[in-house]
Amino acid sequence: MSQRITKAVIPAAGLGTRFLPATKAMPKEMLPVVDKPAIQYVVEEAVEAGLDDVLMIIGRNKNALANHFDRVTELEHTLQTKGDESKLSRVMESSALADVHFVRQGDPKGLGHAVLRAQKHVGREPFAVLLGDDLIDERDPLLSRMLEEHDKRDATIIALLEVDPDSIHMYGAAEVEETDDPDVVKVTGLVEKPAREVAPSNLAIIGRYVLKPEIFDVLEHTEPGKGGEIQLTDALLELADDAETTGGVYGVVFRGRRYDTGDKLDYIKAVIQLAADRDDLGPDLRPWLREYAAGLAEG
């Protein structure tokens, strides 16, 4: 019987250089996606899946993250005095979401190193890792399915997405075998950011993982890989190669809606897609978008 998972780790130490100058003084995780910072969507996803103990791995100048998930009594008092219960509820929502902790990564040695920094908090328990660049639509739950597969197989679970083969060089790529479930594959190999001609498949690793504590043992001796960083992909490959001892690695193939906030163009698309789907914004936004697109076509 696998151990119930309650802890989520969110690496958030990156500098966000692709969004400069916006991220000169603001963490990239705090960039708004419609009316909430991107990081709040990620925490909400973890909580919805039953993980209410959240550890963020942060770097310098990330105090805004801690402030966002803390109480702001002065603002709350002002809104309460004005009788603005709607805004007061939204302000208090983030501080009541989860038990949020913070630890600094220190040296920026890659995703594997960031995950390793969670060892003392997590202990010898399985846990989830959620990357903030990937926003998963709440209507298409992914993490809960991954947790179910972990419980079923007592194995490490990663999220996979079919991508255009021309884009596979931007991701870690998985070599896989089929299982009795068309949405679950056994991972037999992993390659970090391969060229199209050598990629084992077009199944890309996206930013959701359910990890067994053995990952820490592996990361402690994982040497820096591509880019001079300690790659989580390399540690996962070692777990996959030692399936008899570790339970192996399986992938859940995600076929739902995912919003990539990792670069400027995809970030803009994510904001538009999420806003267009909202009941309060969509009815006015969608006709405007059609009119704007028609004007571009005519021009």
From TrEMBL:
Residue span, Nucleotidyl transferase domain: 7-273
SUPFAM superfamilies found in the cross-reference section: Nucleotide-diphospho-sugar transferases
Alphabetical GO biological process terms: UDP-alpha-D-glucose metabolic process
Catalytic activity, reaction form: alpha-D-glucose 1-phosphate + UTP + H(+) = UDP-alpha-D-glucose + diphosphate
EC number(s) reported in the record: 2.7.7.9
EC top class named in words: transferase
Molecular-function GO term, any one: UTP:glucose-1-phosphate uridylyltransferase activity
Keywords annotated in UniProt: Nucleotidyltransferase, Transferase
Family per record: Belongs to the UDPGP type 2 family.
Name of the protein described by the UniProt record: UTP--glucose-1-phosphate uridylyltransferase
Lineage of producing organism: Bacteria, Bacillati, Actinomycetota, Actinomycetes, Micrococcales
